[in-house]
Amino acid sequence: MSSEKPYRPNVGIALFNAEGRVLIGRRFKDDGPEIILPGLEWQMPQGGIDAGEDPRQAVMRELWEETGAVSADYLGETTWMTYEFPPYHGPATHRLAEFRGQRQKWFALRFTGRDDEIDPLTPRNGQPAEFDQWRWERLDRVADLVVPFRREVYRAVAASFAEFAGTSAA
């Protein structure tokens, strides 16, 4: 039963540019229980925390692995949040099949580099590319662009980080 499975420790990244928009990437394939749905392929970068890794180290590693960006300053972070994966009927050997969902700490970072630093297609640390496109988006719009099982967390992130976006997450 999925409720007996643990949550996967994870970090989420709200990378803000100078205009207060966040970086989102378009997932181009499913990854086990991390499905994508037509029209809802966009998300902010996120990734697992390695055993013994500090979440603040994980956030910078994941930012680099998924986007190539390294020029970012810490702005703030949320408390831990969780979401459940949708039902998964794939191989039990998939790396995410042992988890019921993700337990995430989200970080707000200010991007201090140039847009040409962002390159989500180049694999890094032996990790395959997850995004085939990226763009800057208003934080208060991102929850409408993600798969439904992530929306509640994205709305909470938007409310927590509204001050960095210069918007109200009503």
Automatic annotation (TrEMBL):
Motif annotated as Nudix box, chain positions: 47-68
EC numbers, comma separated: 3.6.1.-
Entry keyword annotation includes Hydrolase: yes
Keyword terms, alphabetized: Hydrolase
Cofactors named for this entry: a divalent metal cation; Mg(2+); Mn(2+)
Molecular function terms from GO: bis(5'-adenosyl)-pentaphosphatase activity; guanosine-3',5'-bis(diphosphate) 3'-diphosphatase activity
One protein family per Pfam: NUDIX
GO biological process entries: nucleoside phosphate metabolic process; ribose phosphate metabolic process
Domain (Nudix hydrolase) ranges: 6-159
Family to which this protein belongs: Belongs to the Nudix hydrolase family. RppH subfamily.
Function: Accelerates the degradation of transcripts by removing pyrophosphate from the 5'-end of triphosphorylated RNA, leading to a more labile monophosphorylated state that can stimulate subsequent ribonuclease cleavage.
Name recorded for this polypeptide: RNA pyrophosphohydrolase
Provenance organism: Bradyrhizobium ivorense
